[in-house]
Amino acid sequence: MRLSAIDLHLTLGGAAILKGLSLDFEPGAVTAIVGPNGAGKSSLMSCLAGLRTPDRGEVRLGDVPLARRAARARARRIALMEQSPQIAWAVDVKTLVGLGRTPFLGARGLAAEDHAAVARAMDRADVARFADRPVTHLSGGERARVLIARALAGDPQWLLADEPLAELDPGHQLDAAVLLRGLAMAGKGVVVTLHDLTLAARLADRVVVLAGGAVIADGPPRTALTPAVLAQAYGVEARLSEGRGGLLIDVTGRHG
Amino acid sequence: MRRVPTVTLVAGLILLVLVLGMISLMAGRVWAPFSAWSDRTDPRWAIVFLLRLPRTILALAVGAALGLSGAAMQGYTRNPLADPGVLGVSAMAALGAVLTLYLGSAASQTWVIAGGAMGGAFIGVLLLMALSGAASSTVTFVLAGVILNTMAAAGVSLALSLAPNPWAVNEIVNWLMGSLADRRAEDVTMALPLIVIGCGLLLLTGRALDALTLGESGAKSLGVDLAATRWLLAAGVALTAGASVAVTGVIGFVGLVTPHLLRPLVGARPGALLAPSAVGGAVIVLIADILVRLTPAASEVKLGVAMAVVGGPFFFILLLSRRRSLA
Prior knowledge:
The structure holds 2 protein chains of 2 kinds. Chain A is α/β, with parallel strands linked by helices.
């Protein structure tokens, strides 16, 4: 099902964060949302996940406005990974991943199929080895992978992830990128925000550049990420070249 | 520490409650062994069934109420320092109860005091949530608790200084210290149903409290209705803490200590902590009440005071051990 943002306006504390933003997301692709700090990336993600209601405009999943769907039904279809959230208690890894099954639970708690889904998610995110360790004892990268597993445990149609790769080492970054690409290949929709432009260019099928609460470029990485767009969005000079693994974006200095 | 299945843990604690319950009926100034229970003409029969039985039931109910509301508040605030006492809900309940003093003769009715206490507790929970706001950090919650405790204490002092007569003052000061002595069967019939309903409401929050491990937006993204959780919690805490304060006065630290002791045993999951904390709180209050009864003193040491003497240092140690993670 298509996820669409239609003319989103959002004001927080007097500041206009999103200014009439419209975007359609198709399943089966990885979309990267990039942009400078304060561009509205995280606000857009929480609107897309249905956590925040825009002041004007709406988000639709399929043909139904997200606000009209029941919270549980929405949570089964859309998983949101926040950027390094606080984990309040020293629960073990499989309990935390199990929280991803919350929208599916009946009165009796985790059933056999929930346990199976949790085990699958832990395998895919490569965290099964420390299933019994408390999350508070994990390194930043391990924790980030556990949170990926948490998001996968609900087998969502849409995965919205805010900076999912930021805390990972290059090896696990690559693994996570393969995992996200695999989800898209399997027909799921994946929307990620990223700061690393080279990573965005290599991971995503489509890059949306946000600045000041509006879309300033949208398309395949090579069309969206141009020196002119980067100068406008970030105020930097950048040189683009072809590397062995794809596009390389080299920020050379401040613009102008 | 090894994780114990919740069912085993609760069953074990219930067994403990049964044993302690028997001891509680036997122990006190007058020793009443099991053999004295069946003979109605024995004066000890009256002691066991008219004095100690209501007292034991109240100890269990109040302990369960305080343990469970502590566990639920800790889960909701994601803060191991939360409980009705620390966050000022018990103090607000006490203020509500003391204010019923001004209703004149109606105030002698148990249910009027209970209503006042529950009203106070409910307002306390709502103020707490309003003061701490959506972005609730440990610090804002504890500060909100300090504000509530201070306001409630000032209100109680004011009410006492304006009290209609000195006997009323004496009565209230005694009651505020928290005690289970001389409780009657009607205290039980008034408080028990309220506490049972309140505990039922709080037990419903388990799934939401689990999801709150990931923070408020994390829980919302998992489809949890936080507004409903907030109302369940407010009503549940108002009923449990309010009814407890109404019959026994303020007994602190049970809600703080019980979840803290049991948390490692349930693998820290806040939802799994609820039921064990209820039974565990009952165990702790019953043990404390038995000890208070057996302490040789001219007049019985108040349970609330005894709890504070033991609980204060415990709270201190808890704060010290958490200094790293709070900094």
